[in-house]
Amino acid sequence: ILFGVRVGAVAALYFNLTLMVGAGTLIITPDAPLIVASAFVLYFLAKVAESGRGPWWLGVGAAAGCALLSKYSALMLGAGILLWLVLVPEMRRWLATPWPYLGGLLALLLFTPVILWNAEHGYVSFLKQFGRAGFGGFEPWYLFEFVAAQIGLATPSIFVLSLTGLWALTAGSEISRTERVLIAALVWPTLIYFIVHSLHDRVEGNWLAPIYPTLVVAAAAASHALSWRGSWRTLIERSRSLAAPVGLGIFLVVALQAATGLLPLDGRDPTARALAAGWRDIGLKIDEIRVRSHAPGILTLNYADTAWLSFYLPSHPPVVQINERLRWVNSPQPDDKFLRGPLLAVIEEGEPHPAGSDNEPRHALADRYEKVTEIARLPRLRRGVVIDYYVVYLIDGAKGDPLDRS
Hints:
This protein has 406 residues and is α/β, with parallel strands linked by helices. Helices cover 57% and strands 10% of the residues. Helix 3 (31-51) packs antiparallel against helix 4.
């Protein structure tokens, strides 16, 4: 719609070659529906530009509402839409019509269940997510980590094409202002926000997921719609020729590593951490310890371990996270008799430490229980390589309510 059939086909190819899509959407996270919804936001805006018909704004609103239901970072798409309407004279006429506002109202209606849930629970998820926005000092090394993650998730050649295309479309080119500003406006608010955030805190690579449908259009435009000269032309031609083979090659390496763990990358291997490598074996051992200890259930200190233990322990005993109880507000609540003990507590450790040494998780348990005894330290292994360690404690004698219900 925006740049012609050839650019559209190349954008679809690049989209699927990125690790953000090719590998990231295989994992059950909110990023997969967010990417889908974000792609539809771009599609419906392109239809607005192409047709000039108001009802397409309802499609924009529906897609934006679904994006917001996936992740709050979709708010940045709204900022991009407003920028597009303000910066392109041909689009400003829409501000004098009801259609963009009806689309915004539809997005708000779709998002209303989230608002109502927060209103009933102290606005906890709003406070958690928007609380990340503060500036907590200057630590610029996170910026290098952020850029490296995007080079990997986009794949190097598509990353180069995306940035050069985005810059050319922003600076001005032979392409119509309506189309080029649309692409730039949907990317820059999210990109600038996370660049600033990376100057003081870690930015997870997948947080840029909502701009990937638009970024690959910029990459395809750089590859097949924009004119380049001199060294820029050489860079674009080389990146274009390498985009498919490099992208496919990286995907195959990641897929092979995910399936086999051939490279001994220990805890640095994201596929091992994300795909439960070694959990079936360690789950058996923890369950055997639980049975021997006559503990009816298990306590944890984070939601990831709660999920792994609930799924991989063969007997499926109750697994309860002590803290962040609002994560589990819709789940059956444990009774007081169960919480008194004896129970097991399973705590993930970054690396082994001498028995009896002080550590924060142990203090968190000692604050809640009279007896806290370390009874096992288990490595999670993949092909003999340690991914991480889990410390198992036998706890008993609750000091009041051990759950943090704040």
